[in-house]
């Protein structure tokens, strides 16, 4: 079993490797989560030590704060038409480089920025590789609160088991940066997730799902030897 310290070292390794993809003048999507944090920190170091000039586009309030701490100049997503490179973590990655995101409830803006990017690079440790999406975690669905009953019914009919994500150290549900709530949905292996995702995207009250199909251009994987970063790309 991997220790928490070795897992942290893997995240640091792969996050720093991803920062090596940055080039002068890039507009870069700054992801959210523990692995993306190391990418942001290394980007800041390169700016200070190497004179690298980049502009970040944060995917969450958390990533905004981290970028500000590193002195990375920022643009908001609405001020951009194109992003050169986005780097973000993931909760699961399948063999076709499709991913699940949203463990931090930031997947709506993360998907927007991924969709705007010429390169969308996922950074994970080896434990996030799965044979099928939904193998280890539920799928997040961000919804507006008035649609809770309706979307719960739609998800149930699709074969899912939805649960409202509740806060930790606070009463009530998790509220996203967009002011909405999240349903975490368990789907069995018999469910076609592409079809379910397509149905959800035409369901009133659904803002976005954590299923990222056909968006990642590259996945950097920190391997369990603690020294190697494997690069996965679509052929």
State the gist of this model.
With 235 residues, the chain is α/β, with parallel strands linked by helices.
Task: Walk me through what this model shows.
- This protein is α/β, with parallel strands linked by helices.
- The chain has two domains: 4-128 and 213-224, Rossmann fold (3-Layer(aba) Sandwich); 139-208, ACT domain (Alpha-Beta Plaits), CATH 3.30.70.
- 30% of the residues lie in helices and 26% in strands.
- It contains six helices and 13 strands.
- The protein has helices spanning 4-19, 34-50, 61-70, 107-116, 148-157, 193-200; strands at residues 27-30, 55-58, 83-88, 92-93, 99-100, 117-125, 139-143, 160-164, 181-187, 206-209, 211-212, 218-222, 229-233.
- Strands 2-1-3-6-12-13 form a six-stranded mixed beta sheet. Strands 8-9-7-10 form a four-stranded antiparallel beta sheet.
- Strand 12 (218-222) and strand 13 (229-233) form a beta hairpin.
- Helix 1 crosses helix 2 and helix 2 (34-50) packs parallel to helix 3 (61-70).
- The radius of gyration is 18 Å and the shape is globular.
């Amino acid at each position: 079993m991997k220790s928490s310290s070795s897992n942290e070292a893997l995240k640091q390794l792969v996050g720093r490797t991803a920062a090596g993809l940055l080039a002068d003048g890039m507009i870069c999507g700054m992801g959210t989560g523990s692995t993306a944090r190391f990418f942001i920190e290394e980007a800041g170091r390169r700016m200070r030590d190497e004179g690298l000039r980049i502009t970040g586009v944060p995917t969450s309030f958390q990533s905004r704060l981290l970028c500000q701490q590193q002195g990375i100049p920022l643009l908001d997503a609405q001020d951009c038409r194109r992003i050169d490179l986005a780097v973000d973590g993931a909760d699961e990655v399948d063999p076709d480089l499709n991913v699940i995101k949203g463990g931090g409830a930031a997947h709506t803006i993360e998907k927007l920025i991924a969709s705007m990017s010429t390169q969308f690079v996922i950074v994970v440790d080896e434990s996030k590789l799965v044979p099928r999406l939904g193998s280890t975690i539920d799928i997040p669905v961000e919804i507006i609160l008035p649609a809770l009953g309706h979307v719960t019914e739609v998800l149930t009919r699709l074969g899912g088991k939805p649960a409202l994500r509740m806060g930790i150290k606070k009463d009530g549900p998790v509220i996203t940066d967009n002011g909405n709530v999240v349903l975490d949905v368990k789907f069995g292996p018999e469910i076609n997730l592409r079809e379910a995702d397509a149905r959800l995207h035409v369901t009133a009250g659904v803002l976005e799902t954590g299923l990222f199909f056909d968006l990642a251009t590259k996945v950097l994987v920190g391997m369990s030897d603690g020294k190697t970063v494997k690069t996965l790309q679509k052929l």
